[in-house]
Amino acid sequence: MLLSKDEAICLVLGLSQNKKITTITKLNKLLARLNLFLIPIDIDFRLNKFGSFNSELGELNTNELYEIQRYTINNSEHKSCKLKENGEYVFNKVKKRMQEIFTDEEFTELKKEINFLSQLSASDLSEKEHEILLVDKDERFKLEQRLNDNYISLMDLYDEIDKIKEDSIISIKLKALIEYCYYLMKYLKERRFKSIPEEYEFDAFMFDYYFLAILQKYIIPFLVKQITEKDINTVKINRYYQYIVNYPKGRYPFSIDNENLNQIIQ
Amino acid sequence: MKMPENHYAFDNCSIIHSCEIIIPNAFRPILGKSKLSHKNYFKLSQFIQKLNKSNLKKFRFVPSNADIAIIGFVNQLIVETGITIPLPSAFKAEVNEQIYQYTQSINQDFIEIQKENEIKGIKTIFVQNEKMLKKGKNIPETEDLEIIAGYQKHICEGNKYFISEDEHFWGYKDLIKNNFNICIIEEWNCLAFNFDLQLT
Hints:
The complex is a heterodimer of chains A (266) and B (200). Chain A has 266 residues and is mainly α. Helix content of chain A is 55%, strand content 9%.
């Protein structure tokens, strides 16, 4: 499942208060936030001083799904975005598709979070995102700690990989997920963040930071639990695999779609 | 006068063998190619096309353990490459997924025949006529016997054909024909099968 730009916008607007977002900067932040719920969307983000940013979102125009309204505050022009009736239809379709990978509880959590965040100011949203992703230069030690913690945990998991029997397609997918996460983390630790830049990383590709946060918060704890449990959680394995392995295809260097991947993992 | 219709049933493995796998970019330089397939892929896909063109019905047997068949096939393909593949589990997972999606899409073109659990009588015939097979286990496995029993029960006015690569079937070709009226077509011989002759 990969949500198109418009589907992702409808999802965010549908979950927001009054089905409206007051600025494009906020819309940017909320769309980026979908990544932290492991929802693949067809929008790439880079780092600017407010966090995740995609310049094309600034050029959104009214269409059949949402309306862009222009307004001025303190001599500066802003744009808000409101869901239209056709957009609600798309929102409901997306919601239905998401039921394949989200439990009702998880979707409620997403709804609560996006609704809450939609009521914050852009700067509050930015601050929260900075805290989660550890992009600030003052938090380099935390970032380094995250890199080390993730790497060690995945090394341990990778050592256990042969204990998983290849007796079903999903058990092989679980092995693949562990293997892939281990090598992804190795790439992040030994290449991408080999020397962590002292300065703020303007224009950095946000996948690096999303992966680090997602691995720590969701995937590693899940894999640790899953490797010792008899019952395989098919829905979660598929969801994590989709985000970590399928989503980066064609949009990130560490991808099985990259013909130079073998050189990266060596 | 309308000719009795022949039925063409496929072993699940043969359906899987008719899939061509697109190798993800990362593995192409290592494997030196962009596609991977079973040695009988071309013949099988042509044979299926021929059946489709002639509007002949295709059958498969259920229930089937698709996972096991796919895993076995993928492992065999990897061994045949003779190459140590980096990210081996990810490679397997990707290939598994492609084959799984392929079988999901193609299965609807095949009419289901239920396997039959009652195989005692059939097994006795094989035991009494045991042959030395290359694959080791001389007597067809339970699942193979369930296929034969299911196909035997299946109503068909014309000839019943069964396409398989499994020696448990082609190794007992004559016995199966004589006792159960099922004609075995070896996968690798499927294109040599004289369609027109069978149709007239």
